[in-house]
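Open question from group meeting: does this chain pack into something compact, or does most of it stay loose? Before anyone orders reagents, we agreed to write out a predicted structure and look at it together. Recording both the input and the output here so the notebook holds the full record.
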Amino acid sequence: MGNSLLDVCVFGRIAGREAAAYAREKYQPGRPHLDHVRAYERERRAAGVGDGRTSPMLLPDYVSQQVKDKRLEIKW
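Structure tokens returned:
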């Protein structure tokens, strides 16, 4: 575990610093929004697809029904 742990520490730190620098450069103040969720809902309704959800949705589920069906076929 020695090399793996060192890799995680070193490259994780580098990745964090780079992500922070990128965010500082690209940040544009504005009001947060969920327009992508609204667009998803419009497309879903236009296609006549029901969602069958009982809880609030924060982010859309982009997994197709075909993939969901295959998940059910897999016997663990």
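Observations to bring back to the group:
Residues 42 and 48 are 10 Å apart (CA to CA).
The chain has three helices and no strands.
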